[in-house]
Amino acid sequence: MEYVTKDSGERQSYDSGMVRDVQKGKPDFFLLLTDLPYDKQLLTRWAALMERGASKYGRRNWQLAASEEELERFKASAFRHFVQWITGEDDEIEEWLLLGDE
């Protein structure tokens, strides 16, 4: 495998002499963070949800799906949770999807 260093052709220079490729067009992960406390951050809540799933089903269990049947089962669960959320049922969904007060 050959690795390639991607390059936009544009540079941003700093007073210190540091030079970096520009951020334009690249994912800005800092936008995922808000002014909420650590335990209310989306990423913290998502990671906690993943840990609870790992405790219940095994670590990375969801990545084991390898058949159309397993994919359909995964989609069915995801869609059920989405409908629960969209209709106002929040006993499972709110803790990881919503950023409001609990």
In summary, what is this structure?
The protein has 102 residues and is mainly α.
Would you mind describing this structure in some detail?
It is a single chain. Helices cover 38% and strands 6% of the residues. The protein starts with 10 loop residues before the first strand and ends in a 5-residue tail after the last helix. Mean pLDDT is 87; it is low at 98-102. The relative contact order is 0.08. The protein is mostly helical and 102 residues long. The radius of gyration is 20 Å and the shape is extended. It has helices spanning 42-57, 68-86, 94-97; strands at residues 11-13, 19-21. The protein has a two-stranded antiparallel ribbon with strand order 1-2. The protein is built from three helices and two strands, in the order ββααα.
The count of DSSP E runs of length 2 or more, i.e. the number of strands, is: 2
- Discrete helix count: 3
**Class computed from helices, strands and strand pairing:** mainly alpha
Low-confidence stretches: 98-102
What can be said about the biggest beta sheet? 2 strands, antiparallel
Q: What gross morphology would you assign?
A: extended
Radius of gyration: 20 Å
Distance between the termini: 48 Å
